[in-house]
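Appendix B.2, paired examples.
Example (i):
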Amino acid sequence: MELDTTKIPVAKSFSVTDYQAAPEGALNAALAAATQYARSVEGMITAALYAKHITDCLALTPEKAQAQAEQRAHQAHAAYVDGKAPSKAPVAPQIACEVIIPAGQHTCLQFALPSNIRLKLLAGACLHITRAESALSDSALSIQRVHDVELCGEGRNEISCDPSFTAVLELSAVRQVLIRGLHLSGAPVKIDKPTCHQVSINVTAAN
């Protein structure tokens, strides 16, 4: 059975509810705080310890290995955006901290996810992304030129965007990226496959 890394505790969390008064928006402010922490010495140590814990969790006894092989055989129909089966190598990003979006309808300006951060939508949370006036990107959510990122939901969480975007999610030049438990709508998903390494995507998309 694939390891559900979203169940593994993260040392530090930033909830958007703590940044409601931020002029740049709650999610953007929470991401900025998380990024600052992830780039600190403490954040880098936390990411390394998290990676060690993941490695320990992935250590298999012969019995577990057999059970995993049988489970994988039953899950050959895994639902990926491009319809292809997942890589055999587990994708387990090194996470320094996470940004939490609680239940409810949330709206934010387009944004990019930085390295070593998990963005987690709790059960009942939906996110709609709108265009920033000064933005250079034509994608609602960008994961580009980064590493060790998680984007996940608890259930059928939806991330949608204004129809003026060319992509609701764009991935390029990344490694160790895990995306799952989400429904994406409003624009297509764009993935530059030749530049994406160790990426696991298990979502549904309207486009």
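Example (ii):
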Amino acid sequence: MRYVEEFRDPGAAKALIARIGEVAEAIGATREQPVRIMEICGGHTHAIFRYGLDRLVHEGIEFIHGPGCPVCVLPMARVDEAVEIAERPGVIFTSFGDAMRVPGTKKSLLQAKAEGADIRTVYSPLDALELARRHPDREVVFFGLGFETTTPSTALTIQQAAREEIGNFTVFCNHITVPQPIKVLLDDPHMLLDGFVGPGHVSMVIGTHPYDFIARDYGKPIVVAGFEPLDLLQSVLMVLEQIRDRRAEVENQYGRVVPEHGNPVSLAAMADVYEPRPSFAWRGLGEIDASGLRIRPGYAGWDAEAKFGIGYGARRAREVAEPEGTRCAAVMTGRIKPTGCGMFGTQCTPETPLGALMVSSEGACAAYWQYGGRRSPEAAE
């Protein structure tokens, strides 16, 4: 048995921080010319700021916050379509809580709920399926969101609905995949990245080999990391050691959870239920080929896009401009920090969000707001 205190031990943290400093000095990292390490997962972003790791490590280490929040990268048009479904008569629309306050062009799901739509927060797609069992006269729709972490649970629920022939349950599928947007970032000549801290929960499902292209084709080290402070510190050290040794490999710091080849049961369910979309729109990155998943024709009876004639199933997702003055796309892709947006902490707050990054539990702006008092560029210094 291993306890969480083992991964938060102050003595071990100090030793790792000292070692990070030594390797950073050896490779010539400075505040003016830092080693830029992108953490892909929004959960890692929050852990970094919750534990103050950005302030504890050597000043020559800069954390770049990647597009690792699936709610945040969802374009506003898809939020609008979710609201459109939810407001139809006879629909019970269900969603995870962190999507409820994400603004669309006119309103959020929470605002639609306040106006009378039957929208309910659930903790699992199975909760939505149970609602469909209990309300056979209503159409129950689950807002399927997330990277590969949550994709299997939605797939398994659709399989269960098919076995039971529950015809009043559908999924509005917005599941997306991690590797494709990383390639887009690496192909961007303006993105200067030295290495990656890879997502732990996603990798628990897909394994480590989907990241091979990062090391093989781009020569960048990536270390799949856990979420405790010692996990992240050790992962940063492993990235730095690869840079020092002029290596580019996929390493797995989170071996206690992440298997090399992923979870076969989850992967089988995903392959059965989903197929890649030709392309999918990402907020901040635009259309990315084969980066989204759609429900296969064999399960069309449980596909909300097919049943309601909405979304990619009916037309291309329309382009919707971000609110004037916001810089969500630049924050999402690591080009600026949240404090670089003039709206941060002024017009855009958790109470009055203009963008998803401020309200999602994995959003970078929410992390800056919640931890460390980073409410202005000066406070970030």
